[in-house]
Structure formats: C-alpha cells, structure tokens
Amino acid sequence: MWPLIVASVAAVLFTAKVRREMVDFDVYRTAAIRATAGEPLYRTTDGHYQFKYLPAFAIVMTPFGRLDAEAAKVVWFALSVGLLTAMVRWSVRALPERRRTERLLLWMAVLLMAKFYAHELALGQTNIVLGVLLVGALLAVQIDQPIAAGVLVGLAAFVKPYALVLLPWLAVTHGLGAAAACLGVLAAGLALPVVRYGWSGNLSLLESWSQTVTGSTAPTLLGADNISLAAMWAKWIGPGQVAAGLAVASAAGLLALAAAVWSARRRVDAPDYLEFSLLMLLIPLLSPQGWDYVLLLGTPAIVVLVDRFPELSPGWRAVTATALVLMSFTLFDVMGRTLYARFMSLSLVTVAAIALAAALAHLRARALA
C-alpha cells in the first residue's frame, strides 16, 4: 500500500511542478553529453550552472545523456524518490535499541526533513544518492563488513567529495582495511575518465575541476541558502580572511567534538549509529558550498534525536526542540521573501544544525553517566 501511495504522490508532484524545474539535473545531463563526446566538462561560459563534480561522475551519468531531456528527468526523479524512501527506511531500521516504533520514527523523519527532501527533488540534486551510499556504509559496519563500508564511502566521494570526512572515522574505528578499500575506490574512480579522455586529458580535467571548485566558492558564501560554516561567518562579519579563519576554527571545533564522541565508544553498546549520524550532519556545515537541502543527510541524526529525546536533560530538550523548529519549519512560502531573507542572513539554520550536533554529543555523554 505505502509504495503505491508514495508513487502516486510523486507522480502528481512531478507532473504538476517538478518536471519544469530540476535545473541541477540539467547540469549533470549536459556534462554526461560532453563526456560521451570527449569534450571539456568545466566551462566558465556555463555561468552559475557550471559542472562542479569530479569527472568520473559525468562518465557514470552518460546513460542519462543518451535519453531525451524529458525522459531523463522522469527516470532521475523516479530513481531519486525510490532512493529517498530507502534512505529514510534504512535510517530508522539501522537505529539500535529503538525506544519508539518504526512507524513513528518514519513519520517524524519525513515531517522534520520534508522541506529539504522537497527542495532536493525539485532541483534534481544528487544528495539523496549520497545519503543512500552513506547509510548503506553504516549498515555495512553494523554487520561487520568494514571493507564494504569503505567501498561505499569511496563511491560516495564521487557524488560529493566531502563524504571523505568519514574516512578518518572508518580508519580509527573499523581498521585500515576499510580505509584502504575507500582509497582504492577513490583511485580507480579518479582514473576512470582515462577510458574516454586519455591520461593527459584526464589530468587536464582534474586540474579544471579543482580550479572550478575553488574559483566558484567565494561568490556563493553570501547566498541565502548556503548554510555552511564559511557562509555563516561571511554573513556575520563579511567575507575575508578573518571570516575564513573563523570558519576553519569552527570546523576544527566540530571535528574535535566528533573525535571526543568517538573516544568514548568502547564504553557504550552499538556506538556506530550516533557517531556516523553526527558526521553526516556535519557534512553540509563543513563544505563551503553546503546548501540547506544538503541537510537531508541529517536524517539519521534526526531519527536518533527523536528516538532518544526523553533521555536528553531538560535543558537540552529545550535546545533540541528549538533547533528542530528553526531548521525544519522555517519555510519561504510561510515567512515571505523579506522575513525569510532576513532569517537566512542570520544563519540561524546553521546555528540550529550546530546545536543538534551538540545534542548528539550530549546523548553520548548521558549514556556514559
């Protein structure tokens, strides 16, 4: 019954609205067409819609370049909806020792993440694919398959390179074999475009990719939907070296928080879920181009916070509830252009995500008490 309902709702939404959007998917399809023809992928003439992914991603997307534009959109949207359903279900089922029912956690995850899911689907973005690969890696470590987890994290890096924030965690908690598997996949993926472009052509592509990513970051920091730490400081004090330094210091602080959580893992049962969900939540904050919809990667974090909410201290319950409201229910259509723009200029969504990361650390501390 539920798959039929999801499919029906998705079909209505696609027909009514989404098919006229999906502007980011158009970028991937254009890159796929260029890769098929062996043409340069990174072009400044593309303006705001430059391709910013690693070359291997364009190679993998070539089947979509062979379809006409409308058919390609239908297939990508259907795939995205299916993977989103899997990601949410896996996020709930992976949670050890659930306190609440699976149905309640599913509904709460959808309710609290709905605006990010909707934005992702409307753009035709890739973060759902990233989320599925990462949650799949979590499931793999839970069944003692660290090599498989390393492979999945390596694959995820070609969707979005900042998935590699999980590499140190894999190496420290599940051994060098898992990290080696990740690095092996990364090396193979970096070499993949050689089949189409040759060795020198591939090296040229990788250089162009690096220049595109670094050159396009600064102009996005003041964008309303950029919720990264770099954007937060740029909005608060203005772009520049001071803001960049504070962003680096903030990132180091959050990674130190994650490391502190890891350090206590031997004293708790089934530690992987909370640690993995914390790192997934941090990804959009650490990436300078962390758009708000990338927060859908926080789905496992939301699941564990909802499930363990009564175990938070009273003060942290208030902080967590406030952060969830600020992050999940501040909608452009409700607030209006002026108020929403002001809200986003204050980076309150970023602050809320940081608070939720701290709440996860608090949960670990409570478990040790």
Question: How would you describe this protein?
Answer:
The protein is mainly α. The protein has one domain. The chain has 19 helices and no strands. Helix 15 crosses helix 19. The protein starts with a helix and ends with a helix. The mean pLDDT is 91.
In short:
This protein has 369 residues and is mainly alpha-helical. α5 runs parallel beside α15.
Shape: globular
Task: Quote the average pLDDT.
Answer: 91
Ranges with pLDDT <50 over ≥5 residues?
none
Q: Please state roughly what percent of the residues sit in beta strands, choosing from under 5%, 5-15%, 15-25%, 25-35%, 35-45% or over 45%.
A: under 5%
The main β sheet shows up as:
none
Percent range for helical residues? over 70%
| E-strand count | 0
Give the radius of gyration: 20 Å
Q: Which terms would index this structure?
A:
mainly alpha
Task: Chart the SSEs and their pairings.
Elements: H1 2-16, H2 23-36, H3 55-60, H4 62-65, H5 69-93, H6 102-123, H7 127-142, H8 146-159, H9 167-174, H10 176-191, H11 194-217, H12 229-237, H13 241-263, H14 272-286, H15 299-307, H16 314-328, H17 332-335, H18 337-345, H19 348-368
